[in-house]
Amino acid sequence: MKLSDLTLKEASQKLKDRKISSVELTQEYLNNIEKTEPKISAFLEISKDIAIDSAKEADKKIKEGGYGSPLLGIPAALKDNMLALGTHATAGSKILENYRSMYDSTVATKLNNSGMVLLGKTNLDEFAMGSSTENSAFQKTKNPWNLKKVPGGSSGGSAAAVAAKECVYALGSDTGGSTRQPAAFCGVVGLKPTYGRVSRYGLIALASSLDQIGPITRTVEDSALVLNAIAGQDSKDSTTALVPVEDYTKNLKKDIKGLRIGIPKEYFVGGIDKNVEEGIRTAIGQLEKMGASVREVSLPYTDYALAVYYIILPAEASSNLSRYDGIRYGYSITQDDKDIKDLFSVYSRSRAGGLGDEVKRRIMIGTFSLSSGFYDAYYRRAQKVRELVKNDFAEVFTEVDILVTPTTPTTAFDIGEMVNDPLTMYLSDVFTVSANIGGIPAISVPCGFSEGMPIGLQFMAKPFAEGQLLQIAYQYEQNNNWFKEMAKI
Amino acid sequence: MAISKDEVKHLAQLARIELTKEEVDKFQKQITSILDYINKLEKVTVEKGEKIVVSDIENILRNDVVKKSGNQEELIEQAPDRKNGQIKVKTILKKNETI
Questions:
Q1: B75 touches chain A (CB under 8 A)
Q2: B 44-73: CB under 8 A from A
Q3: Choosing from A9, A22, A79, A149, which is the catalytic residue?
Q4: pTM exceeds 0.80
């Protein structure tokens, strides 16, 4: 067995017992990266020096009896929209191509304090706008299960890196499904915590009422271990909740007898691939055999959640992205055109040259829905319907503990298949956006294959019920062997 | 709902994004199809009143204490155009113009 076959939990046990060293482990991952990257293109930057230094430090700490965290000495990757000192932070955009992280994001600080070995920064759709990672200004990441397929997005680099054993775990950010959808496409575990559970300080903002950072891992237990390290209130992000952080591994091994599961009927109407639906139905049958009670429930506003999302997200993004103006940092047209005279042209031509199509599209849609004359009909209406979607969840969670759905309607699609059809691409988020709209936690775990491509099973829970969410996900996972299947590259 | 080419140009102007003629054509079609989709919200009956609250948290307060944040020199160094430790921008007032 190779060191990179170990899960986070297994590797950390071996480090703790001093059966392996972090330098050995890190070197194997750096070798994997060297070998696999030409095919997968998951990384935008590889921070080899930082990795080796942290690995040495971890080994020293362990030797001196300072073992303090299961993440100590474990090689990881961060999505390139998170700031980490010593690395760039491009957000996959040409406008930030040369931008250097000016400080550590709170997640980077917390992971550093836990002893992270940072291998590098992973590819993403530009400013996390997309579902395939094809919108990156720099490169197209391939799905480790089939190099002709997309890895999903926007955290496609993080999911592909975990699936291809280029890191033990990675962080992604999830605004409408961006950790869960790529995790489903790449056959790994993707968690979106409750809105406010993890600090976004130092995360390049997309849509501030939806964005949340979450782990992408090989197993559910690994996900719980990473969440333990990154969750919590942060004075630098006022949206973080005061709710105490529990030990998310605590309940994993409890059986699910008596747990009430709801199957929202609106998630099973048309558009789902037959094999995906069959995989989900089989999983539901298993959960019932494991002792959970299963009933059909209704979330009547589900059909509107995606439309709400594609109003609120562009609106908030158009505001958040106004900071990229060619003045304070990032790409500026003044570098290429010395004759430019007026300030307006600096703004509009820097943005024209520095931003990609999807970003321009969403900024304009957001500008439209916030503009006078359309604000009431679009933005305000969307916010009201958002309340209705949230109420749906609040009501259904009085009857059941957990919701079970597919993560995506299909498995990974072909590279290039949807590039010119933004709306069809948007529809691949149809099952994931509701959790962001409602601010609730959700997780995707592997539940089988369709024509060689992984299928994702999604669980959703009440706000701050990550413990219960991870428990059922773990119980399902351990009752199967899907997580042991690895992509052969 | 169809959006006209002039409206696309106006939006681009508001958003400070210069578009080529081809881009105007392309975005006009794409934005129209996206607006057609999101217009399905018209079918939802919503109540009057303005509740636009996402989080249940309110009024996060802190003491008003000065803290050092970031290295000014390093921050300014990332600006594309600089002079004497300051960020340089193009003239915004015309000659002989006053505020």
A1: yes
A2: 44, 46-47, 50-52, 54-55, 57, 60, 62, 70-71
A3: A79
A4: yes
Range B5-43: architecture per CATH:
Orthogonal Bundle (1.10)
* Residue of B13, B47, B55 with shortest CB distance to A239: B55
List of domains in chain A: 1-489 (3.90.1300.10)
Contacts of A107-111 with CB under 8 Å at 24 or more apart are A107/A78, A107/A82, A107/A171, A107/A198, A107/A199, A107/A202, A107/A203, A107/A213, A107/A230, A108/A78, A108/A82, A108/A83, A108/A84, A108/A202, A110/A229, A110/A230, A110/A232, A111/A71, A111/A76, A111/A171, A111/A229, A111/A230
pLDDT tens-digit profile of A307-352?
Answer: 999 999 999 999 999 999 999 999 999 999 989 989 999 999 999 9
CA distance A287 to A306: 28
Rounded-to-5 percentages of helix, strand, coil across chain A? 45, 15, 40
For residues A359 and A126, is the Cβ–Cβ distance under 8 A? yes
